Amino acid sequence: MESSHLLMTSSDIVENGSVAKVTARDDDAGAAFVLESKGDWYHAGFHLTTAIVGPSILALPFAFRGMGWGLGFFSLTVMGAVTFYSYYLMSLVLEHCEKSGHRHIRFRELAADILGSGWMFYFVIFIQTAINTGISIGCILLAGDCLQIMYKEIQPNGTWKLYEFIAIVTVVMIFLSQMPTFHSLRHINLASLFLSLGYTFLVTGACIYAGTLKDAPPRDYSLEDSSASKIFSAFTSISIIAAIFGNGILPEIQATLAPPATGKMVKGLVMCYSVIFITFYAAAISGYWVFGNKASSNILNSLMPDEGPALAPTWVLGLAVIFVLLQLFAIALIYSQVAYEIMEKKSADVKQGLFSKRNLIPRIILRSLYVIFCGFIAAMLPFFGDISAVVGAIGFIPLDFVLPMLLYNLTYKPPRSSYTYWVNNTIMIVFTCVGLLGSFSSIRKLIHDASKFKPFSDDVVD
User: Fold this and answer.
1) Would you say 214 and 36 are in contact if contact means Cβ atoms under 8 Å apart?
2) What is the rounded CA–CA span in Å between residue 367 and residue 359?
């Protein structure tokens, strides 16, 4: 089947298995190139796992330190259950639209069509852009931090700065960003899945080892002194967990599936959440158990302190850092796809072919400029923990915890007396409030940490 028959807008009418009129996407290079629909359910599983299970899980002990054991476990479990439910509902909405002849392959178009509002199109594209850019910046920053960690182990008195390692990462990302389609990342994302399991086991083992040392770090699980500070820290931590569980690109991932997509996304979700269950709890429990309220936003920094010896075998930590570094490239790639799709929808000519000179040159230039921008911001503003919190509160909570429930209620129209209707509305209300409070608290912390700000600082600020 031709790609033009797979990319249907809400104005398409399907009769007797064929499209009744020419679609508006025949000239849509962003859809035809970047979001080509060729994948199977396990490819979607690879993409989902890379989008959710990343080195950001090494910030879970840092999130726990703002809540403590009880609230930390509760928040992690609730976020996991709600996001799985949310993504499941989103996949059902997309399948319903596909069966009715409207195959939506972009989050913004899905939301605008179902809600019948043009402003929703721009709201979603703004939030997605913020998420994609924020995560790309965070990945480049964390990758540079990983390189710096390895460098300091090899050259303790070395003079290279963090921004120089970020520049190296940026150059590598420029080359990797030229992979033309989302589907072309499937093998990279399979490797990413194994990398996430690898460094989780290594870091968990390292934390257990560090916790059993005779001179293990003193454990203090106490929270901040004032009630106001406790509340703000808790909501900042919740925002971080929301960012770790979020992806905000599920429709675009489902778009990579060869039609019909019915049932395929659910299998991909089950694969993804099987990995989530193993990695999230292992990283959170082991890291917070050892370091308590001294946990860094990257637990590897706690295991490899600036002063004194490493708290675990160097080869274990070094291998974990290498695994993290490699996966960061995959995550940055997957979250850049929406930005690339937006750029190529405007810049590419679908009639000229994917690798034609007409399309290749603009692709290289625009994608390179996007990566350079992200690298520059990462070097100038090294606030990894704060960036995660802000992105979670402002970006992931509305897209992953609110909109899917609203879209499901409007699409399937469950009775007001039904359990589904009230569960969906409760989730929307609760997480709208959480998002507002999380936005305030995370921005407050970012402003507070601004006192530590130095342009192109040599340290990642927690």
Assistant:
1) no
2) 12
Residue 172 CB contacts under 8 Å (≥ 6 apart), including other chains: 329
What is the Rg, in whole angstroms, of the alpha carbon atoms belonging to the chain?
22
Strands 18-19 and 14-15: antiparallel
DSSP 28-52: -HIIIIIT---B-HHHHHHHHHHHH
Structure tokens at 91: 């996949």
Please name the residues in contact with 110: beta carbons below 8 A apart, sequence gap of 6 or more: 93, 94, 97, 104, 251, 407
Partners of residue 19 on adjacent β-strands? 14
Q: Return d(Cα 91, Cα 261) in angstroms, integer.
A: 9
CB 252 within 8 A of CB 75: no
Indicate if the pLDDT at residue 7 is higher than 50.
no
Angle in degrees, CA 151, 370, 25, rounded to 5: 140
Residue 131 CA, distance from chain mean position? 8
What do you get for the CA distance between the two ends of the chain, in Å?
A: 50
pTM of the model: 0.85
SS3 at position 181: coil
Alpha-carbon gap, residue 90 to 96, rounded angstroms:
10
Question: How far apart are alpha carbons 80 and 396 in whole angstroms?
Answer: 13
Average pLDDT, the chain: 83
Question: What tokens appear for 62 in the block?
Answer: 């840092």
Residue whose C-alpha is closest to residue 256's, from 34, 18, 2, 28: 34
Length of the chain measured in residues:
462
Q: How far apart are CA 296 and CA 102, in angstroms?
A: 46
19: part of which helix (H) or strand (E)?
Answer: strand 18-19
- Burial class from Cβ neighbours inside 10 Å (0-12, 13-18, 19+) for residue 253 reads buried
368 or 394, higher pLDDT: 368
Q: Is cis: bond before 398, omega within 30 of 0? A: no
Q: How far is CA 274 from CA 74, 277, 342, in A?
A: 19, 5, 32
- C-alpha 342/C-alpha 251 separation (Å) is 14
pLDDT in tens, 276-294: 999 999 999 999 999 998 8
The one-character DSSP state at 59 is: G
Look up residue 61 and give its amino acid: P
H or E, element range at 18: strand 18-19
Cα diameter, the chain: 74
Q: Is the dihedral of CA 359, 360, 363, 366 positive or negative?
A: negative
242 close to 86: Cβ distance less than 8 angstroms: no
The amino acid at 100: S
pLDDT at 181: 85
Helix 314-347 vs helix 118-154: angle between axes, to the nearest 10 degrees? 150
